[in-house]
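Now for our specimen.

. . .
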Amino acid sequence: MPVAAACRYSARITLANVISTNQFKNGTHIEVDGNVFRILEFQHVKPGKGGAFVRTRLRRIDDGSVIDKTFRAGEKFRPVRTESNRMQYLYESGDAVVFMDSRTYDQIELDAGLVGDALQWLKPNDEAEILFVDEKPTEVQVPSAVDLQVVSTEPGVKGDTASGGGYKPATLETGVEIQVPLFIEEGETVRVDTRSGEYVARA
């Protein structure tokens, strides 16, 4: 290959292996100073004087800490390889949570702190999406809504209807407590928005 062509080929490879601030998206992962971060928020700023820059809010993958960081517009970073794998939640074991790949039956243990609030919406044998960043499991993603049975709640007041009447606390089968309408009774299954923890409807 001629030298000029080789240089152009090398440049294409180099450019393909970087991501600039112009390509930022919420949820994108980048490497900064040897650490991998997930972009939570970003804002392009063009001041009247001086160069443009990008304000970001980033979550560090290793420990979950959130930082605010500013970058120069056009600054480049190494893109991080991400992959989502559907896995089955098996059980908790001390400070670990065990998941299994339903296709290969391989099991992995995740730190309970890494699983976080996702665990309150999961029953044994439920499936969840495990996000792998550079082949390392980093996050458990549950559906936006789940159906769970009410195992404990106070009886509603006679005459309550589905159209209103207020709310009361209810404990669901995973142990999480939410607010449900007064007409909901023990043993019923309800749909819950996992993003807000709010009751949606009878399931």
